[in-house]
Amino acid sequence: MSRILRYHSTGRPADVLTLETESAPDPAVGEVRLTVLAAPVNPADINQIEGKYGKQPSLPATPGAEGVARVESAGPGVSTLSPGDLVLLPPGAGSWRESLTTAAQDLVRIPADLDILQAAMLRVNPPTALLMLTQYTDLNAGDWVLQNAANSGVGRCVIQIAKARGLHSLCVVRRPELIPELEALGADAVILDRREDMASIRERTGGAKVRLALNAVGGDSATGLAAALAPGGTLVTYGAMSKQALKVPNGFLIFKDLRVRGFWLTRWFENATVEERGPVFDELIALASAGRLTVPVENTWPLGEFAAAVDQAQREARSGKILFRMSA
User: Fold this and answer.
1) DSSP label at 97?
2) Which of 60, 99, 199, 206 has its CA 20 to 30 A from that of 11?
3) Angle at 80 between CA 75 and CA 85, to 5 degrees
4) What percentage of residues in the chain have a pLDDT greater than 70?
């Protein structure tokens, strides 16, 4: 028997989550049984438990959009994985558990020496960052990308992936103490999310024709990014932290012909083929293995202390991610 977190109704995570036990079935044809090692607590996980996410599972449900696991046994017909291999769990697997049985074809094998906690966070924020940098406009080395919420998990990945690809990043944050931290991470310019600083974006980028901006805030912050885009530029929205509506003046569309797009990783996973997913994770795993793509970790918790874990994950101004660590 192994432990698993479930919720039978939506609501405040610490109130509706329950710790239960189950037995993972033996793997059938094409399946493997896994021991889960670690899984992060992401904002989307919290939103889903609260009933506020764009796609809700049938109840009862197990949260956890990503995680890392070790193969314990393989069913008939599995030739790509062996016991002992480390893998990334499939999207939306319900990773807040100690074990599960799933299809082998949905798993991504990772190097044995990759840091377990960093591996557990490779399925959500890093592909979001990489896909937004590559799907909407063709960027060349030396080009600039703008982003707000730059200290978020996605924002930090954008900085590091952009740097690895030879791109420049201008990053917008709300707290001045974050500026040296993100500069050390590789950001080329970091400014505060206030009107006078946003007005200086063109000066900070040397007058470059910026063609891509990534928005996770909305409201005036998104408008400031859009104002700095060159004609024909693209504003991609993937979050709404301010809970304020996106404001794009008519003139930006008429006279600048800006493109306004949205990105949702869940939809990409639903539509992407195995052939399309492969290069994305090959690049991310290579960067993580080389230490060029990392996400800070504030704390890890065992499953049994889930109430403390989810409460800490919801605090503002954390120094890093919160993860469940199920096994050494």
Assistant:
1) B
2) 99
3) 85
4) 99
Q: pLDDT at position 114, please?
A: 96
Give residue-wise pLDDT tens across range 19-32.
999 988 899 999 99
DSSP state of 289: H
pLDDT digits (tens, 9 = 90+) for 241-296: 888 899 899 999 999 999 999 999 999 999 999 889 999 999 999 999 999 999 99
Nearest to 241 by CA among 279, 310, 193: 193
7 is catalytic: no
Cα–Cα distance between 283 and 97 in angstroms, integer?
28
Q: Give residues with Cβ within 8 angstroms of 122, minimum separation 6.
A: 66, 68, 88, 110, 281, 284, 285, 288
Burial class (CB within 10 angstroms; exposed 0-12, middle 13-18, buried 19+) of 109: middle
If one counts every other C-beta atom within 10 angstroms of the C-beta of residue 232, the result is 12
- The strand ranges marked E within the chain are 2-7, 17-22, 31-40, 68-74, 86-88, 99-103, 108-110, 144-147, 168-173, 189-192, 212-215, 218, 234-237, 244-246, 259-262, 297-301, 321-325
pLDDT score recorded for residue 23 = 87
- Scan for tokens 């500069």, then name that residue: 183
Number of C-beta neighbours around residue 97 at 10 A: 29
Q: For 311, what's the count of Cα atoms within 13 Å in the CB-facing half-sphere?
A: 7
Give which of 76, 99, 51, 49 is closest to 313, Cα–Cα.
49
Give the ranges where 55-186 is alpha helix by DSSP (H): 116-120, 125-135, 153-164, 178-185
Strands 321-325 and 31-40: antiparallel
Going from the N-terminus, what domains does the chain have, and what CATH number goes with each? 2-121+295-325 (3.90.180.10), 126-266 (3.40.50.720)
**Whether the bond into 60 is cis, omega within 30 of 0:** yes
Catalytic residue among 7, 53, 136, 238: 53
DSSP state, residue 115: -
